[in-house]
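Dear colleague,

Thank you for sharing your sequence with our group. We've completed the structure prediction you requested, and as agreed, I am returning the results in plain text so they can be pasted directly into your records. Please verify that the sequence below matches your submission; if there's any discrepancy, let me know and we will rerun it promptly.
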Amino acid sequence: MHIRKYDCDYSRRHFLEQLRTGVLATGVLAPLWPTLARTGEITGVYPDELLSIEAYTGDKMTADIINFLDYLKAKKAIVVAHSMGAMLTLRLLTQYPDRFTTAVLCGVGARMLEKRDDRQIMAEGMTAADAKNIKDEHALSFRAFAESTNSDKQALAACISAARPAFDEQKLAKIAIPVMVITGSEDDLSGKPEPLAALIPGAKAVTVEGASHHTIMGDPDFKQEVLRFLNIRLKPVMLDDDEEDRWKR
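Please find the predicted structure tokens below.
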């Protein structure tokens, strides 16, 4: 008999509480950063339940986001999300329509509407012993991005592998808040933004020239498009050389 000391609900409650109180570098079983520095992964920090595919199903992940908003006592929110986060946002907008006022969906587009399932290829790319053995171009790019950000590849593989039902176009047609769908011109993983935007009433489609799936969030043109869409005006800030160099890093 196997007794699970830490079930999914415990882990979720723990992390939400830590996030709410501003403790972002904590694990469940051990301190996060020392363990990550020593081993290069989080398997010694988090219980098996958080590396389980079942922990990353669409409904559970959207429920986590709503629980976090509840912790923050945020009745409504503006959401700017990228890639899988943007796909989760689409579910949030249909499942919890009263919790959001505006949404920016980045790194999703026409290809999201295709009937394809590349989860296994992408997950295998994350867990391959040697990145040189990865043949799929997209899987290799995600592996390189994960390594560049020191992300835990086992957890990402579990997240990628989780089953997610196809989007219901009739539900997308009921979204009633301002939405912008934005992708990069070099993002062949997402495809063009127009087909997805066409399914959401009044949605705006934008393409950022020269940006890829992995670079768009840092692109100045992307940031300008988001600020313009949200009608946010920022005052110019003058930085000395040391401050400017620190922000670039």
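Summary note from our side: The chain has a mean pLDDT of 76.

Kind regards,
the structure core
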